[in-house]
Amino acid sequence: MLNQELPALAPTDTAPAPGAVSLRRRLVAEFVGTAMLAVVVVGSGIAAEQLSPADPGLRLLENSTASAFGLGVLILAFAPISGAHFNPVVSLADWLAARRGRAGARTRQLIAYIGAQCGGAVFGALLANAMFDRAALQIAGQHRVTGGHLLGEILAAAGLIAVGLAAARHGRGVSALAVSTYLGSAIWFTSSGSFANPALTLGRMFSDSFTGIAPASVPAFVLAQILGGLAGLSLMTLLYRPGADR
């Protein structure tokens, strides 16, 4: 069965045992963790605009560095409570893996996690706007949908799930380092800037800043992220399947 080869997306030394942490506490952790991640991503993007208005490369460096460091810290902080998903694609992959016989996210938890993540991402984006004395509620105007951008999102999400599953076998510290490092590099090597997260994509719709995305671009980005997540999960299932070399 898959549970003998493919670990949970949460690090094995921090994932809460079934029933050990109430769903309410896990949802609070997912809401707060995703909100803080949105503050890091959006806030560092706004700060980068102010600090380096004439240098897009430097803005991207500033944003990617803060995003990678912030995600790593948040994984370490919240993994013992909720598994530190902060991402509907991660929760979906965990739920699909559970359907193969591994203890993991149940359907009720999946729906609740996605709701908490989306709510947290929107709240975090509004908070980041307000923190920089901007109107809290904004609508982004950056249209990002091209064939190359969508391919970049598929690759970004596929890599995130694959790296997360592989790194989770080695514990919390390795998982936090691997996932955050991957995110920081993917912001550079993907044409889309590696959103790779439907909740943050939704949240970034509410910030007309360097990291924003226009509402019309959101559905295509989310679809690409889901397809990429499924591809990453399928790859890892194939690689860790019993008797795959026979």
Quick take:
This protein is mainly alpha-helical and about 250 residues long.
3D architecture notes:
With 246 residues, the chain is mostly helical. Helix content is 65%, strand content 0%. The protein is globular and about 55 Å long. The model has no long low-confidence stretch (mean pLDDT 89). The protein has helices at residues 23-51, 56-82, 88-98, 107-131, 147-168, 172-189, 198-204, 218-239. It contains 8 helices and no strands.
Structure keywords:
246 residues; mainly alpha; 8 helices; 0% strand
How would the blueprint of this fold be written?
Layout: H1 23-51, H2 56-82, H3 88-98, H4 107-131, H5 147-168, H6 172-189, H7 198-204, H8 218-239
Helix pairs in contact: 1-2, 1-4, 1-7, 2-6, 3-4, 3-8, 4-7, 5-6, 5-8
